[in-house]
Amino acid sequence: MVNWREKFRAFTIHFLVTAVLAAAAAALIFAVWFPPPFATLVRGTELFVLVVGCDLALGPLISLVIYDSRKTRRALITDYTLFGAVQLAALVYGVYVVAGTRPVYLAFSGDRFEVVVARDINPRELQAARTPEYRTLPLAHLRLVAVSVPAADHNDALFEELKGNEQHERPKFYVPFESALDDIRAHAGRLADLEKKYPAYAPLLESAAKSVSTPPQQLRWLPLRYHTKFWTALIDTADGRPVAYAPVDPYGES
Fold it and tell me: What is the pTM of this model?
């Protein structure tokens, strides 16, 4: 006869162990790799739930199948060791997949900010970086850079962009963020003008502005793009850095 009480106890223990590992993975992913609001913008939350949720749900369920108090201690250890190894490998692979979608650079390019995730940058482009600091991807937290294409590289940049390899995905064109401060200030718009153009955006923009300590007179906005999705970045004109983000398309397309 099946002892369901023992099986559910094994299920509970297995679930708690898996939950601890999932929590550790979540701490790495959301505290280090996907600071707000990038988990939402690049859909890191959805990917994490899909990958870790399956591991969290399916793993403990296996205990209902493999646990049997009538088995020898050696048999139980063998079963749990084998399945534990498979489950841990699945979790590690899932975290690896999520790592490929982590934002690594926030690049000012032209007249907007571009979100660059790890998988956007071809390893070949990393090696082509002119500055050593851009030949490896940041492991923790995204980094602010600016994009500058030398005149001699204009044709190369154009042809590669036609193939889908955009300028902000090519570290060879990265320069220090501070060097673009004048361009950032020149392209940044007033929040009042954006609110006047799109009155429906006002509550979200005002909420974002109130969430930071930057004086209102220093706040401006620039578009923020991730692939085909646009948000609005609020910047501090003192240093050009984004200080808040609003989930609104400044071009009014959503």
Answer: 0.84
